[in-house]
Amino acid sequence: MIYYSDLQIVLQEVPGQISLCISVTGCPLRCKGCHSPFLWKKGSGTPLTDEVFLAALERYRDMISCVLFMGGEWETEALIHKLQIARAYGLHTCLYTGLTEAQVPSPIKEQLTWLKAGPWIEALGGLSAPTTNQRFIEVSSGKVLNEMFRQ
Questions:
Q1: What is the domain range of residue 133?
Q2: Entry pTM
């Protein structure tokens, strides 16, 4: 079961998309300098049941073009299920994770349009920094799209 802290509409995390962003709780990665340590506690937040997820998709259906999960890869089966629902709605899908691209299970990647991968390392900066270790990837082509964050 996926638990979440927040559902919100975001405009910058996936360039060119209006995204329903789901901040998933229970993150085991605990990256030093994480901007959201409140998401670390397993079982905190609200269960993201199919009913809750479908209600959000219906509520924002005419507004959003993408569903973005901030974490959740540690609940692989549940995440895949939610990504499949989003895709059935004709929406793009994205996952932000502190794992490397190689560490993200293939069955998850198969459900994604985009993947932001790489642990947060403060000294290297985020996606807009030319020194970043993080990569924003178009999954179907493998193309790294970090330049979209530097404009």
A1: 3-149
A2: 0.95
